[in-house]
Each structure stands twice: as structure tokens, then as C-alpha cells.
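Escalated from tier 1: zinc ion holo job.
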Amino acid sequence: MAERSNDVYDVSNLIGEINNLEGTSVAPDLNDIIELIRSEDVKIITFTGAGISTSAGIPDFRSENGLYNIIKSKFDMPNPELIFDFDYFKKDPKLFYCIAKQFIEVEYLPTKTHCFLKLLHNKKLLLRNFTQNVDGLDSKVGLSNKVNIECHGHFKTGHCLSCSKKYSYEEMKAEISNHDYITCNIENCRGLVKPDIVLFGESLPKTVFENLSKISEANLIIIMGSSLRVMPFNQFINFAKKETPYLIINNEDPLGGMALYSGKKYLLQLPCDEGIKKICELLNWTSELEEIYSQFH
Ligand code: OAD
Ligand code: ZN
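Tier 2 regenerated the structure:
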């Protein structure tokens, strides 16, 4: 945890309700958005969540078939979010590792929505992608570390909570294949090893806060596949200039008809990949999208 000890951004409780402003849902007039993406000086910031990875086979958290309902019934846990709580993890890491094992062992592949992010990146239109996802698919599709801000961390490395020894993904994978959880291999330590993902009660990585000022440079915000229920992530969007339009692609309106701020809201209420397909058709980008997708499928 040495890397984290310098963090001053302690967020003791990440869960919270978004602070909605008055507002109404706007029917998607995609032409406005398409025109904006085509304009020369477009600068896009994306905010993403678990809904962009469900078509890769990874459940989201809060949908009916999401992880929290799975955990509730499988482990008879009325408060499934506890599995991702730092204090709970330190007391009993087994349940966390039961879920984490899947992320460490299974090789998931980027979806069309991840490929769209890469396409924006290739075209130099993507200022930053702020993601809550820990599946690593945004970096797998080829977003650079500079652009891709993994707000809730990742499974690429881990650390011993006692002596801070760093563990690679390969080391964790080997360890978890025949243990219930991972402990430090230093003889007189044997501390608990945690992948470098952010649990409830932990600080967000410093890089998140170093990049927040970029959000105000955007002239288009795109939010995809998130219920926007978790703080402080859902608050970061408010760093946008108040006139910046924002497009939400999600299979439900995460704002329940409300607005985030005074910029124009566009809601494309569809599965993410379908929304992306539609946008790419209108932009004449379909073949470029498919080209990226075919590199993985
Ligand atoms: P949620 O599960 O809260 O929200 C996912 C959203 O995506 C919901 O609104 C779904 O309806 C929608 N959705 C699911 N599949 C979709 C699809 N194929 N197309 C379009 N929409 C789809 O997930 P997040 O918002 O990412 O944090 O959750 C945020 C955080 O809560 C996670 O990072 C995690 C969790 O607790 C930590 O563990 C720290
Ligand atoms: Zn150790």
C-alpha cells in the first residue's frame, strides 16, 4: 500500500446518490451530436461503467441479473456491496476473491463500445476516458494510460497490505488458481495481498484527481453504461462547463428524467453496442469500427 499512502484524497464512503438538478429527459436528436463529433474542434470526455462490458459476458452490479443480486442469493448476503468494502476484505477476503478470481482468470474481450472508444482515441477526439470498470478492457482495446483513467483501479497488479510488496498479474493468477485468497510470499510477512482495485472506503488513485481539470476542456460529454450511483465518480461530471452537452447511452435513464447540469442532455436509451452502432452508421465510421472489433473477435 506504499503507493497509496501518499494519497490525500481519502474518500471514506464511495456510495451515494447523485445530486440531481431539475431537468427533463430530451428525446435524442442525434443529428446535433453527430454534427458536433464531426466538427473540427470537438473534444470528448467519456464516463463509463459496467454496462459497456455486459456484452463481453461480465455482469454489471445493479441490474436484475447483476453481481449484487447474484451475490445476494449465492452467499445469502443482504448487503452484497460489503464484498467490495475494504474493512470487510481485511476481515474476510474469501468472498471478494471468489468474485475477483473470475476477473483474474477469464480472458474477456473488448465490446463494440470499447472499440468506439478506441476509434475516438485514434481520431484524437478523446481527451480522457474516466472508467469505473476494473475489467481492463479499455486498456486492452488500446487506450493509452494517459487517456484512460481507471478510477476504481485494475487487476494488472496487486500489493501486500502489510509490507507493500508488489505482485504482477501473472503472480496473482498463479496464486489464486489454488488458494482461496492471496497472501504475501515473504517468509516473515504473509500479509494479505489485494489487487490494485479500489474498494469502498479506500482512496481513488491520484491520477484521477490529476486529470479532473481536463473535464472542463470538453465540448461533448458521453456517459455510457453506468447507473451513476457511486460517489465520487458521479460527481466528476460536474467538472464539465455548464453549457457542455452530454449524451447518455444506457438501457435505462440513470437520472430518472432529471438533469446532471444545465448543458443539453441527450439520452439514447439502448444497449450500448446498439447505440454505438447507430452513431457510427451516422458518422460513416462503421467499417473503421468493425476493423477494430475484428482485431479481437
Ligand atoms: P451499475 O451496475 O450500477 O450500472 C450499470 C448500468 O448500465 C445500469 O444503468 C444498467 O441498466 C446499464 N446497462 C447494463 N448493461 C447494459 C448494456 N448492455 N447497454 C446499456 N446499458 C446497460 O454499474 P456501475 O455504474 O458501473 O464500484 O457501478 C459503479 C460502481 O459500483 C462499480 O465501479 C463498483 C460498484 O460498486 C466499486 O466496487 C468500488
Ligand atoms: Zn508482505
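Residues 1-27 have pLDDT under 50 and may be disordered.
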